[in-house]
Write a structure and sequence with these properties.
The complex is a heterotrimer of chains A (about 450), B (about 325) and C (about 325). With about 450 residues, chain A is α/β, with parallel strands linked by helices. Helices cover about 65% and strands about 0% of the residues of chain B. Chain B contains 13 helices and no strands. In chain B, helix 2 crosses helix 12 and helix 8 crosses helix 9. Chain B is flat, with a radius of gyration of 24 Å. By secondary structure, chain C is mainly alpha-helical. In chain C, helix 2 crosses helix 15, helix 6 runs antiparallel to helix 12 and helix 7 packs across helix 9. The chains are: A alpha/beta (about 450), B mainly alpha (about 325), C mainly alpha (about 325). Chains in contact: A-B, A-C, B-C.
Chain lengths: ~450, ~325, ~325
């Protein structure tokens, strides 16, 4: 066994070395990296390369080692595509990415950082840890990785702001998802003469559509918020969209985050009640009621509108749910068998994967620069299931119309805000999740629930 | 006992004590220290963190009272059922020809990882009765279905399918006495009975056939043999299994974490302190909760000391 | 239930293994043995249904798993697929992960048992001041939750990291991402139970046997290896099985102490099969059986130490 293992390891080492030797571009520095990958966007003007990166590196770069990367991705859709995205970097630089995926990322990251054993790079799906680690001085500012100017030049300001803590830029967004999407079955809608809503629609229009569908004899909605220890989060997305959909909703959202508006504010309560109006309304949801919604997994809840025959007309969840539908119904054609319309009100919440580094060595720096660049991200865009917020990614390069419109809605929203509970994190986030599941079974306790969530602020 | 040089026992103990010192004693002391400090372990706060556990101000996300009661429920119910079933299986399987198969059947759940166990039990107890085995059975026989007039206080009034893991259970009962806790404990029993069975079987192996034969010749029936011969000889092993399971129940974590994440009143002390430490990053309260777990071992140790002194006397 | 099952075949003289079943004897046999078999079969069936459900599901298409219960799959027409196994087994690096799992598990298990057996021998058969208190403290350490130790241990491992160019050990003699580091960690976590179990069994060995050996001038080492260990094989076997299982199925320690995927065990590979939102979990059903193969082989290999335990001389029927 040992000799086998020895051979494996030696083999690995040899192949890495031979790769290095073979790559005549071994001296390729940070500047060269921008050229690697499928950079055939010839019709676009060349990306303005930041001055310091364009200069030749002061010394021949050392042999790159292994970058230890911690994230949430796994399986064939995400991890394999991410690895495909990184493969050109590994081939060109001789560096090696060692990725560990876990669904308990916050916990694992905290454990390892506190134990003095952080990874080189982390890619968490929320910004709560960014704030904590940055303030504790654990993170390397992008400026120290020769990346700040490039990120500021190539990413929308709202995303740059989200990656900054106290004025210092630490992180960039490699992947983003809109959460302003109501999925529906276009054929079913066409057959029954139901009209999908538009960005100009209001909550009342949504209620009217719900009543119309119910009047025609089909259950309007499918909803499920079960997600193990994170159960309730799909409900928090509903509530955030409903906050953003009202005039001045963006400011309410920001006020809730910074604490200037308490969670007990009438505008917040109004959003909860609207959520209840839809999902707890008699006959509105195929899962029956609050108990059924709490017990139904959020992935399973995305199937009923597309079953044969459909048992519900539509469901609300982030844009990533398109992937659940195409996994479960492999023959379904995006745009024909399933599609989405924007959540009424025109505000858009979104989630995303944030990239930050704990280390400033050559390998980490090189990989961070590659991940932030358009060429690498384009690879994943082509493979599907990935929205980039990099300015140089062309909307026409998305594999199908639904994913293209998802990317567009993300960048063209009237009021874009990052996911509310993912921004706050910690006990407040947990309380928000729990609050949703409590509200679904005891809607009469709403005031107490809101007070308890506000009470969890700062934990 | 033979005479030895005084340092000889310590040579035999040294590797174990050294490793235990580094891997368990040192982290324990570190945790005790942190439990008296603030959330960043920077400044001394006295008993504030313990006061937090007693006052329970964050009951929505960190219900310390419910977690402690739920842990207690685990300790009592899980241990009782697992040890009894393990003993039954160890003794009874020895009397049938399909012993090997029966034992393997009970042992297999032990070999399944927690994550896989979570997957399968979520299938078994899925709300949708087209997928959930138990709800399919309940629907099939019409339990608690208003149409058939059947109703049990332990089940919800939802028609037939039950929500086993979420805000479930008898509405009139408070705190940890929710059906989801009983379900989780049942899953724990399913996984750990194999453990009790194997250890107890190994103990039974040590009982010589002659002792039993002698008892039979004396005219004892099988029940008497079980009560008067097997149980006394096996009692140290039963104590080992019971103590071990009590302590495993005290720190039960994985099962709850992967199935419900501690939601809907299923939190136990270990899931709560894990969340406090690594999600909320409050090292003070997290450590204090861990210390609460450590304290519970004291009564167990006192019972063990008594038993030990007794054993020493009869030896 | 225990009582009824046991009290019935009272005082029966040894009978032929396969009693011929005349109608009258069949009635008596049913009365005598029926409850025993019924209880056993019910328990074993109850215990097996989830496992069977898992097994059936592992041969189903993910869309089918999400659409209908596993029992639908065993009705005609049968529609099974080995896709799940195909994906898991053809995962890149699974072979190496399997080897890594063995490299992690076997030495950890052996070290735990040896260290614990030595300590248990001292606790059981040597007199020294503070013996019982010390033993109880060791047992008391059972209560220390693993999660509590993670931060201090990482700090410690970071401080005493020893590099060496030994590819077999992952390029490191000690510290994070080294095999010896994780062996010792697993040893530490397994020791309290191991010492407790073994001390209990060692203490139950016949006193006369050991006294006689000491009288003959046998050294401690000789007594330990020639008497204690051979006589405790059932206990050692059950301990070995559980240590093997716990280490084999460990994910947390591996996540934290083996950051380098080249050293990572199967559990890490398997957990990476599931995507961030929980899709592809059907692969876990197949992975569960694949990762169960080795522990089950160990169980079956050691099974004779817990099978036909007591009533070797009595009737089986």
């Amino acid at each position: 066994m040992n000799t086998l293992h020895q051979r494996v390891l030696h083999g690995k080492r040899l192949s890495r070395r031979s790769l290095l030797a073979g790559a005549s571009t071994a001296s390729l520095g940070a500047a060269g990296l921008a050229l690697v990958g499928c950079g055939d966007d010839d019709d676009e003007e060349p990306a303005p390369a930041p001055a310091p990166a364009a200069a030749p590196p002061p010394e021949a770069p050392a042999e790159l080692g292994t970058a230890d990367v911690l994230g949430v991705w796994g399986g064939g859709d995400e991890l394999a595509r991410f690895e495909a995205m990184v493969a050109p970097w590994e081939a060109a630089t001789g560096g090696n990415m060692a990725f560990t995926g876990t669904r308990d990322l916050t916990e694992l990251l905290t454990t390892r950082v506190e134990g003095g054993n952080p990874p080189d790079i982390a890619i968490p799906p929320e910004v709560g840890t960014l704030r904590d680690f940055a303030r504790e001085g654990e993170l390397v500012p992008l400026a120290d990785l020769d990346l700040e100017a490039e990120v500021r030049a190539n990413y929308p300001q709202s995303f740059v702001d989200l990656g900054s803590v106290d004025g210092t830029l630490y992180a960039f967004f490699m992947k983003a998802d809109t959460k302003g999407t109501i999925f529906y079955n276009p054929k079913l809608f066409a057959d029954n003469g139901w009209q999908p809503l538009t960005a100009q629609s209001t909550f009342d229009d949504l209620l009217a559509l719900t009543e119309q569908i119910k009047g025609d004899g089909l259950t309007p909605w499918s909803t499920g918020v079960e997600s193990g220890g994170a159960s309730g989060w799909p409900g928090t997305d509903w509530i955030q969209e409903l906050i953003l959909g009202e005039p001045g909703g963006g400011e309410v959202n920001d006020g809730v985050i910074d604490g200037s508006i308490p969670f007990t504010d009438p505008r917040v309560k109004d959003a909860w009640e609207k959520f209840g109006q839809i999902v707890l309304g008699e006959g509105n949801v195929v899962q029956g009621g609050g108990e059924g919604i709490n017990a139904t997994g959020f992935i399973d809840a995305s199937f009923p509108p597309f079953e044969d025959p459909p048992t519900a007309a539509m469901f609300y969840l982030g844009g990533f749910a398109a992937g659940f539908i195409s996994d479960q119904f492999p023959d379904a054609v995006a745009g024909e068998d399933f599609d989405f319309f924007p959540f009424p009100g025109g505000g858009v919440a979104g989630g995303g994967a944030l990239v930050y580094a704990f280390n400033d060595d050559d390998t980490t720096q090189s990989l961070m620069q590659y991940l932030a660049g358009a060429d690498g991200q384009q690879i994943w865009v082509n493979l599907g299931g990935f929205n980039s917020v990099h300015n140089d990614i062309d909307f026409d390069r998305y594999p199908d119309p639904v994913s293209r419109r998802l990317a567009e809605s993300l960048l063209q929203a009237r009021a874009f805000r990052f996911d509310l509970d993912d921004t706050v994190g910690g006990g407040f986030q947990q309380a928000f999740w729990v609050g949703v599941t409590e509200y679904l079974v005891n809607p009469g306790d709403l005031d107490d629930i809101l007070a308890s969530i506000e009470g969890a602020r700062g934990t | 006992m033979t005479r030895r040089r005084r340092w000889v026992p310590w040579i035999w103990l040294a590797p174990a004590l050294a490793i235990l010192g580094v891997f368990l004693v040192y982290p324990t002391l570190d945790t005790i220290r942190r439990s008296f400090f603030d959330e960043h372990s920077d400044s001394f706060v006295g008993f504030d963190n313990f006061q937090f556990i007693i006052d329970n101000p964050q009951s929505l996300v960190a219900d310390t009272h419910s977690a402690i009661l739920t842990t207690l429920l685990w300790v009592v119910l899980f241990t009782l059922v697992t040890v009894s079933l393990g003993l039954v299986m160890a003794v009874l399987t020895g009397r049938v020809r399909y012993e090997a198969i029966a034992k393997a059947g009970v042992f297999i759940p032990m070999a399944i990882s927690f994550v896989a166990a979570a997957v399968i039990w979520r299938f078994m107890l899925e709300f949708n009765q087209d997928i959930g085995t138990v709800n399919a059975v309940l629907t099939g026989i019409g339990i608690d279905n208003p149409a058939t007039g059947g109703s049990t206080p332990w089940l919800q009034d939802t028609g037939a399918p039950q929500t086993w893991f979420t805000n479930a259970g008898p509405d009139e009962l408070e705190g940890p006495l929710q059906i989801n806790n009983f379900v989780l404990i049942a899953v724990g029993v399913w996984m750990w009975t194999g453990f009790a069975m194997v250890v107890l079987s190994a103990g039974l192996k040590g009982i010589s056939g002659e002792v039993l034969e002698a008892a039979r010749v004396d005219g004892a029936n099988e029940w008497q043999i079980f009560r008067r011969v097997i149980i006394p000889i096996l009692s140290p092993t039963i104590m080992v299994v019971t103590t071990t399971l009590v302590i495993f129940a005290l720190k039960i974590f994985d099962l709850v974490w992967v199935i419900t994440g501690g939601r809907s009143d299923t939190d136990v002390v270990a899931t709560l302190f894990f969340r406090e430490l690594f999600r909320f990053r409050d090292f003070g309260v997290g450590a204090a909760l861990a210390v609460v777990l450590l304290l519970w071992v004291v009564p167990i140790m006192i019972v063990s000391i008594r038993r030990f002194q007794f054993q020493e006397e009869i030896r | 239930m225990t009582g009824r099952g046991l009290s019935l075949p009272a005082g029966r003289p040894p009978a032929p293994r396969l009693p011929r079943l005349h109608p009258r004897r069949l009635g008596r046999w049913l009365l005598a043995r029926g409850p025993l078999h019924l209880a056993l079969i019910v328990i074993v069936l109850l215990w097996s249904i989830p496992t069977i459900a898992l097994l059936v599901s592992s041969f189903r298409d993910p869309t089918a798993i999400a659409a209908s219960g596993w029992w639908e799959a065993i009705k005609a027409p049968l529609d099974f697929t080995i896709d799940n196994y195909d994906v898991v087994l053809n995962q890149q690096g699974l072979g190496r992960a399997f080897v890594n799992s063995i490299i992690i598990t076997v030495p950890s298990m052996v070290i735990v048992i040896l260290v614990a057996a030595a300590a248990a021998y001292a606790f059981a058969w040597m007199r020294f001041p503070g013996r019982n208190i010390l033993f109880l403290l060791v047992v008391g350490l059972l209560v220390v939750p693993l999660q509590m130790t993670l931060i201090p241990l990482q700090q410690l491992y970071g401080a005493v990291s020893i590099d060496a160019d030994l590819p077999v050990l992952g390029g490191k003699i000690f510290g994070i991402s080294s095999y010896p580091g994780i062996w010792i960690a697993h040893t530490g976590f397994g020791l309290p139970f191991a010492v407790y179990l073994l001390r209990n069994f060692f203490g139950g060995l016949p006193r006369e046997l050991l006294e006689a050996a000491y009288m003959d001038g046998a050294s401690d080492l000789r007594v330990f290896f020639r008497i204690i260990l051979p006589l405790s094989v059932p206990a050692l076997a059950s301990l070995a099985i559980f240590q093997f299982l716990w280490i084999w199925n460990d994910l947390l320690i591996a996540l934290i102490f083996l950051g380098d995927p080249n050293l990572a065990p199967m559990t890490l590979r398997i957990s990476n099969l599931v995507s961030s939102r929980g899709q592809d979990y059907e692969l876990l059903t197949a992975a569960a059986f694949i990762s169960m193969v080795v522990p089950l082989i160990i169980f079956l290999a050691l099974q004779r130490y817990f099978v036909q335990g007591i009533l070797a001389g009595s009737v089986k029927g």
